[in-house]
Specification:
The complex is a heterodimer. Chain A is an alpha/beta fold. Chain A contains 13 helices and nine strands. Chain B has one domain. In chain B, α2 runs antiparallel to α9 and α3 runs antiparallel to α4. Classes of the chains: A alpha/beta, B mainly alpha. Chains A and B meet through α1, β7, α7, α8 and α9 of A and α1, α2, α5 and α11 of B.
């Protein structure tokens, strides 16, 4: 009795704080769910274990439902799922991620609506104890059954080798860099691993934190760029709109890299500028100076240089381009339009095809081995993976 | 002149009270630093850390597949305990020193070394890949920070001719160590960022590993872990204030107030540095320490040694 009264009191007290949420963005929803970071009443967590709400944003394809269910069960109780813009299937027939009659069935928010009120309401009621926690979706057992010795056994000798739980036992192997024999750890990251683009599944073999082998098991979800880029390829568009979209794109990309590099507060500043309706050139300059002088660029420099590209130099380049594009946007008159898109490079990012590493995903398998995981995460976080507008445009 | 021993009950009250209050203030400072760097107006919400604590108490302790349960639960507590041991040797005034042992500096060195073990055990015992990678990475870098710390602290102990913290504070009566040994405090701050894994040296709980060592932890265990991280930052700041900023020394105000103000200053520095920089690459961090900072700290020690001999 006393314990439950205490629990309720603690819950009521806690519910006035920010709501902890883990976002699993689907196609088209990467930017939108990223922007929730800027809402002070929410905290986007880096691990599902730290959250009480699972936000499934966008039409997550059916093939990822199993992975989503696993993420769902990783959230500690009390937990609730909020589905935002799951498409007609979810909105009409109710979300799949539930047992239909469960009292704690997920909350559904239509695509066009702001999910924050629903998130706050669900999260607060949950923490206050007014809403039951969702039950587990998967049985509490290892995803692969134990396979001992025998025809289908782990297959190793004694206690070594084999795949006892469907995963290989860590065995020593030569290291790529210095030949030091260390345990080789194989793990699958994704499709909802926050440092990586949503949907991307990497099968990684690590020794210590050095990548030995990478296999792209699943491509990231398509996240189309703003329409204006697609139109610029076909016709003349208002120059100011194109420049502004460019600034936002570049700032957002820099913010992603900074976030993966642990500079979340700087990333928030960049993201805040990217979504601001009228981005202030002086503010972009201050942001650039803060990144540069704070030592963040120096910290990033050298990252991923083994692949021939240096993350620090690229981030600096993006910020410089953003500042220039913003200056151009200010100079252009309201009626000024871009020329015909004969020379795509003249359109600048994202059309310039600069030294993007592994712009093609297949390249990751060659680019990442030999890098530290920390560098690889930065490299992948800053990748340009989206086609231009519409989702069907050809790449230049 | 050594301070009189403090009754154990008072010592415990001072340590627990000081660390608890300090941890609460540190979380507020850290939030303010985050707001400032991210371009928001800093909002002081004094209840926010307590609400966070209440939230984590209500949340379930999640389980991984076959963790080393005992170690997984104890490692965060161990980290808190090391913070308390470290804080205990810091003297608050000429008379109030919870545990003014004759080898205070050595004890602090032990705390730094063992804290690395606690962090490693925490990541390892979860039996989950990203936590393990964070733990490995942290322990691989720990050794080099600790060497820097030792040289820097020995240099501070030399002029005092004692390893006792109260003697080191008293030796700064004429001139604080931050002026006498200008390399000391910056190098020690670097060690602190490593010890509490923040900013450029966040190799344990880092974003590229979705939370690293703490990625699988939730509920009360996460509360203990977060408390430990804040408490360790406070203990470190108090140690830095005592060794480099003259501890309780200062005019007009009572000693403990001076120590509190100086600790607060170092805490603010730690929060600001932690929030405004990106993580270094492991390779550059190791190179920086072995090629740059370690020789510098040795140089600092040599200069102090010559000065003492003169």
């Amino acid at each position: 009795m006393a314990v439950s009264a205490l629990r309720r009191a603690a819950g009521r007290f806690a519910a006035a704080g920010p709501i902890q949420l883990f976002a699993a963005p689907g196609p088209r929803f990467r930017d939108r769910s990223e922007d929730l970071t800027l809402r002070p009443e929410l905290r986007l967590t880096s691990s599902p274990r730290h959250a009480s709400i699972l936000l499934v944003a966008g039409p997550v394809p059916a093939e990822c439902e199993k992975a989503l269910a696993r993420v769902h069960d990783e959230l500690p109780r009390p937990r609730v799922t909020v589905r935002w813009g799951g498409g007609e299937r979810v909105e009409r027939s109710g979300p799949r991620l539930s047992r239909g009659d469960s009292p704690g069935a997920p909350v559904v928010v239509p695509e066009g609506e702001d999910p924050v009120p629903a998130l706050l309401e669900a999260g607060r009621r949950l923490v206050r104890g007014e809403r039951p926690s969702e039950p587990e979706l998967l049985p509490d057992e290892p995803p692969w059954p134990w396979r001992g010795q025998g025809p289908y056994g782990q297959g190793g000798e004694g206690m070594m080798g084999g795949r006892p739980y469907g995963r290989p036992l860590a065995m020593t192997a030569e290291d790529l860099r210095d030949g030091l024999a260390l345990d080789r750890l194989e793990l699958a990251l994704g499709p909802f691993f926050p440092p990586l683009p949503p949907g991307l599944v990497l099968q990684v073999a690590l020794q210590g934190d050095v990548i030995q082998d990478v296999d792209v098991a699943r491509a990231p979800f398509v996240q189309p760029l703003p329409d204006v880029f697609g139109r610029a390829l076909r016709e003349a568009v208002p120059a100011e709109a194109l420049e502004t979209a460019r600034v936002r794109l570049l700032l957002r990309r820099a913010a992603r890299v900074l976030r993966a590099a642990g500079a979340g507060a700087l990333a928030d500043r960049g993201l805040g500028l990217a979504v601001a309706p009228a981005t202030d050139p002086a503010a972009v300059g201050r942001f650039r100076a803060l990144v540069r002088r704070g030592g963040s660029l120096r910290a990033l420099r050298g990252s991923g240089s083994r692949s021939g590209v240096d993350v620090g130099t690229r981030v600096e380049g993006w910020l410089e381009q953003a500042e220039r594009a913003l200056a151009r946007a200010r100079r252009t008159g309201p009626d000024e339009r871009t020329g015909p898109a004969a020379d795509l490079r003249a359109l600048g990012p994202p059309f310039d095809g600069d030294a993007e590493p592994a712009e093609a995903l297949e390249g990751l398998g060659d680019t990442l081995p030999g890098l530290e995981w920390g560098e690889a995460a930065l490299l992948v976080a800053g990748l340009r993976l989206a086609p231009y507008g519409g989702g069907e445009e050809a790449r230049p | 002149m050594n301070p009189a021993p403090v009754p154990p009950a008072l010592a415990v009250a001072v340590i627990v009270g000081g660390l608890g209050l300090g941890a609460w203030v540190f979380v507020l400072l850290d939030r303010a630093a985050t707001d400032l760097v991210s371009g928001r107006r800093p909002s002081v919400r004094p209840l926010a850390p307590l609400r966070r604590a209440a939230f984590l108490l209500v949340q379930q302790r999640a389980e991984t597949e076959r963790p080393d349960r005992a170690v997984w639960m104890l490692a965060p507590a161990l980290y808190v305990a090391f913070a308390a041991v470290g804080a205990a040797v810091v003297p608050w005034s000429a008379r109030l020193a919870p545990a003014d042992v004759p080898v205070g500096i050595v004890l602090w060195g032990g705390v730094e070394a063992l804290a690395i073990v606690a962090v490693f055990l925490h990541g390892w015992s979860a039996n989950a890949p990203v936590a393990l990678v964070g733990a490995y990475r942290f322990v691989a870098l720990g050794l080099c920070f600790m060497l820097v710390s030792m040289f820097v602290l020995i240099a501070a102990a030399l002029p005092a001719e004692s390893l006792r913290l109260s003697a080191i504070v008293a030796s700064q009566r004429g001139l604080w160590n931050v002026v006498r040994q200008p390399l000391g405090l910056p190098l020690f701050l670097f060690v602190g960022l490593g010890l509490t894994f923040r900013g450029p040296l966040d190799f344990a709980d880092s974003a590229d590993l979705a939370g690293g060592v703490a990625a699988e932890v939730s509920g009360p265990s996460l509360l203990v872990w977060e408390t430990g991280r804040a408490a360790m930052a406070v203990a470190f700041s108090a140690m830095a204030a005592a060794v480099f900023l003259g501890g309780w020394l200062g005019p007009w105000l009572p000693g403990p107030v001076w120590l509190g103000l100086k600790t607060l200053f170092v805490m603010a520095l730690m929060a600001g540095l932690g929030r405004s920089t990106a993580r270094l690459r492991t390779e550059s961090a190791v190179t920086l320490v072995w090629v740059g900072l370690l020789p510098l700290s040795f140089l600092g020690l040599a200069v102090v040694g010559l000065e003492v001999l003169r």
